[in-house]
Design goal:
Number of domains: 3
Distance between the termini: 21 Å
Bound molecules: glycyl-adenosine-5'-phosphate
CATH topology of the largest domain: BirA Bifunctional Protein, domain 2
Number of helices: 15
CATH architecture of the largest domain: 2-Layer Sandwich
CATH class of the largest domain: Alpha Beta
Helix content: 25-40%
Structural class: alpha+beta
Radius of gyration: 25 Å
Number of strands: 23
């Protein structure tokens, strides 16, 4: 397991997918920078989500600010309840999440609250990873605090948002009336979220700064269960469409104390990471909790008027909440393959072609006879439609391998036959087979091949 993750983290750095934040200063825990290829992959994931979620009649887009009124987080319950159980190593003062320590020691904490977990810790004589006694557990609030304006006192204290959802709740009537939407309808948003996680680990999986892609679907009371089932199915299918195979996905239903303070039902979609199944998306029935709380705390009516029934009510909400960064990590893990080819090890990133940062590389076989010029013209033509790269450096076999390592699905080679009949070879990343294609048909060929691709 460690082996695969180590290799992946190293490839991500070497090839420009992901760098450690502030690396020259020793790094900042739980923060990562997306390099040139990483930012492209992340953007492809976000674009696929945005298209699937907002290019439809019943969902609108939004981009709310990260900084919000402090009262938002009192109303949402995050000030009082957005915390993890924390214990301290009595000797070193290092802090750990109690549930994680227990799980690492083989204790199942499903559905257990903090007190029940502490009882388990005593029962199994839980020690810190350094072998020392642990303190009593206490709840640690995960929200980052900051100040707005020049005064650094309590009146100016606000939070970095720990979820994008609240920006949607407080804008729901603005969007509904501006867009003349009727229930059921949704609002979708992509944006950064911040959580001061007690421990960060597993690369992009649990970080302190990350991106979420959330959608709140507002429905009439009594219809929430049907919508919940509909969105569960939609979201499951979306992962397959971006190239994550069904056999690597699973459901996890939240029980008892596992349920967040706002949720009356919750299912996670998990991906099978090298370190075990991990949540990549949550589908939650948030009831009318958030809107009712905001009504109470703001003093403003957030009711919807149903023209047909002539009734006023606070809608119920089905939420789909997915980590863009975690999904990007799932794509990276899923793509990583090593295989033996003619006695050599080939590292190949088998991304879904639509997710791949570079769609095609254009390679002149040799740097003479007009081949570079033809290859440059093809590059410029294709660049209008796809992210492509021109590469003339080194033996063609080595250029293919370089492209395999960053997951480029097609390598287009200009050779001596091109000079005679205007065709090129197109090499497929996965099968390594080559096909002759007329230059004039390249764009259609790439589009068709990308659409026909299926996860193995
Ligand atoms: N609005 C509901 C909500 O935020 P969540 O289950 O806490 O629900 C949703 O988070 C998704 O956000 C998770 O499924 C995960 O993909 C991502 N996420 C949460 N915490 C994260 C972290 N510390 N690092 C990276 N991604 C995270």
């Amino acid at each position: 397991m460690a082996d695969v993750m180590e290799k992946l983290v190293s490839l991500c750095k070497r090839k420009g997918f992901v760098f450690q934040s502030s690396e020259i200063y020793g790094g900042l825990n739980g923060c990562w920078d997306y390099g040139p290829l990483g930012v492209e992959l992340l953007k492809n994931v976000k674009d696929a989500w945005w298209r699937a979620m907002t290019y439809r009649e019943d969902v609108e887009g939004l981009d709310a600010s990260i900084l919000m009124h402090a009262k938002v987080w009192e109303a949402s319950g995050h000030v009082a309840g957005f915390s993890d159980p924390m214990v301290e190593d009595k000797k070193t003062n290092e802090r750990y999440r109690l549930d994680q320590l227990l799980e690492e020691n083989g204790v199942d904490v499903t559905g257990l609250g903090m007190e029940a977990m502490m009882a388990k810790a005593i029962e199994v004589d839980l020690k810190s990873p350094k072998g020392n006694e642990l303190s009593e557990a206490r709840q640690f609030n995960l929200m980052f605090k900051t100040f707005v304006g020049p005064l650094e006192d309590d009146s100016a204290r606000i939070f970095l948002r720990p979820e994008t959802a609240q920006g949607i709740f407080v804008n729901y009537l603005n969007v509904q009336s501006a867009m003349r939407q009727k229930l059921p309808f949704g609002i979708a948003q992509i944006g950064k979220a911040f959580r001061n996680e007690i421990t960060t680990k597993n690369f992009l999986f649990r970080t302190r700064e990350f991106e979420q892609m959330e959608m709140q679907y507002f429905v009439a009371p009594g219809t929430q269960d049907d919508h919940f089932e509909y969105w569960r199915e939609e979201r499951w299918n979306w992962f397959r469409n971006i190239g994550l195979p069904e056999r690597k996905l699973s459901w996890h239903e939240h029980q008892g104390d596992e349920l967040a303070h706002y949720a009356s039902a919750a299912f996670d979609i998990q991906y099978e990471f090298p370190f075990g199944p991990g949540e990549i998306e949550g589908i939650h029935n948030r009831s009318n909790f958030d809107l009712s709380q905001h009504e109470q705390y703001s003093g403003k009516k957030l009711q919807y008027f149903d023209e047909e029934s002539r009734e006023k009510f606070v809608p119920y909400v089905i939420e789909t909440s997915i980590g863009a960064s975690r999904t990007t990590m799932a794509c990276l893990v899923n793509a990583y393959h090593e295989e033996e080819v003619k006695g050599d090890t080939r590292v190949v990133m088998r991304f879904h072609p639509r997710m791949a940062p570079i769609k095609a590389a254009i390679l002149p076989l040799v740097k003479r006879d007009g081949m570079p010029e033809i290859a440059r013209t093809i590059t410029e033509d294709l660049r209008k439609h796809f992210r492509v790269e021109y590469d003339e450096g080194g033996a063609v076999g080595r250029r293919y391998r370089r492209m395999d390592e960053v997951g480029t699905p097609f390598c287009i080679t200009v050779d001596s036959e091109t000079l005679e009949n205007d065709t090129v070879t197109v090499r497929d990343r996965d099968s390594m087979e080559q096909q002759r294609v007329p230059i004039a048909e390249l764009r259609t060929h790439l589009d068709k091949s990308m659409d026909a691709w299926e996860a193995v």
